[in-house]
Amino acid sequence: MHNRIVACIAALILVFSATPVSAQTATPPTGPVYIVQVGDTLWGIAIHFNVSVTDILAVNNMTSQDIFPGNQLIIPGLSGMSGTLITEPVPFGETLRSLSRQYRVDPALLVKLNHIVSPEELYAGYNLVLLQQEQQPALTARTALARGETILEMSVRQNSDPWTISQLNGLSEPQDSLPGDLLYLPSGTASAEPTGIPAVLTSVAVDPLQIIQGETVQVMVTATQPVTLSGLLVDHRLHFFQQEDGSQVALQGIHAMLDPGLYPLRIDVTLADGSVQSFEQMVLVSSGNYKPETLSVDPAFIDPAVTVPEDAWLLSLVTPITPEKYWQGKFQLPVADDSVCIKSYYGNRRTYNGGALMSFHSGIDFGVCSEAHPLDVYAPADGVVVFTGLKTVRGNATIIDHGEGIYSGLYHQAEIYVKVGDHVTTGELIGKIGDTGRVTGPHVHWDLWVNGIQVNPWTWYEESFPH
User: Fold this and answer.
1) Which string of DSSP letters, residue by residue, matches 287-326?
2) Which of 138, 222, 305, 313 has a Cα-to-Cα distance from 188 of 20 to 30 A?
3) 3-state DSSP assignment of residue 461
4) Residue 90 sits in which domain range?
5) Could you give the CA distance from residue 305 to residue 287 in angstroms, rounded to a whole number?
6) What is the CATH number of the domain that holds 106?
7) How many CB atoms lie within 10 A of CB 387?
8) Same domain, 362 and 398
9) Are residues 324 and 361 in the same domain?
10) How high is the mean pLDDT in each 10-residue block of the chain (467 residues)?
């Protein structure tokens, strides 16, 4: 009997061991995939999407919080969503409606993904998180509904139909669209500027959109007909100049000590009949992260009775806008390229004599690093000399008008070889390095003014303006 029981138990064990067990396969994690951007941290991503770091680690089977640009992370907790969460800077003139139509995403979802409280937050250059649907790329062909035109007429013109276009653009009925409305098309090459830009303009490009203290901003505009352009960036009036390709360009400096934050960029278009159309959007100015610098100088050189009048004199000299453009391409350094010795960089936050005067360094100081160091000073670009002479703070100074609101100032020279009215060319010998004025040693200081604001000259050495 005992043997039978043992045999039965053994048989049962054999049966159960041979019976396939249902595999406990883990449910694949679901949720949209976020592409990690430069500067992202796991903590920051978790806060943005209102999830925990622990949940992100778990759903992605991660054992470390280390992430790198380009990594793909599944974001838990966003039920009902699929696709890829991409980050795109908002072009100047785009709106929440135009972007939601382009990416075929509900505006409410964009608001949720980006925690948008008011339309003002959608400034130009804002890094907007967008949901790129799977098998549904963003639309690129678009057109604007002309005044007096119906969607049916526009559809015929674009070789489509009003129902398809209405569905693509989230319109409940074709008649819901208004004149000037930006509509995306199922295919084609038709294009129109973002919603809000005056219809007479075919494009407005702002470069860079990630604006930094002390840098130069370029605004390039093209139009369908001759127009007069003006505008405003921060608190400076924009001056536009015609280009060979028919576009118009304005260059504007951003002050090195402008508080980081949102500022207005406005484009004003005056038509042939005298009517004016305008568009304004906020742009973000970010910190240049300039370094502190402490100097000790003769107190007479930081006396406001001396510095304030001299600053006012200089500003009045570089304010006039010469319509002719003298320079071409990149600027060169005011010293020989093979003997560059930089003593102080643009933008440094300067403190003089223990805090008696606090300011910023308005240019670049090219110094003397050895007894054999060359002392020659050269013209950075073509232009007309508008001042030569001795000033208290700037010493022996030469100021060159390069045209269209661009000026160079070269200070502290020992000798000046040019005079007012001279036309100088790029690389022409114009002076000698010295130690005149407010200095701590021999050098030549290079200021570069763009529409009344001192900017980083090195950018003009590395990059052509306009471009």
Assistant:
1) ---PPEEEE---GGGG-HHHHHHHHHHHHHHH-S--SSB-
2) 222
3) helix
4) 33-132
5) 31
6) 3.10.350.10
7) 18
8) yes
9) yes
10) 48 41 47 90 92 93 93 87 86 86 85 81 87 76 80 85 85 76 79 79 91 97 94 97 95 97 95 92 94 91 94 97 97 91 95 83 94 93 98 97 98 98 98 96 97 98 96
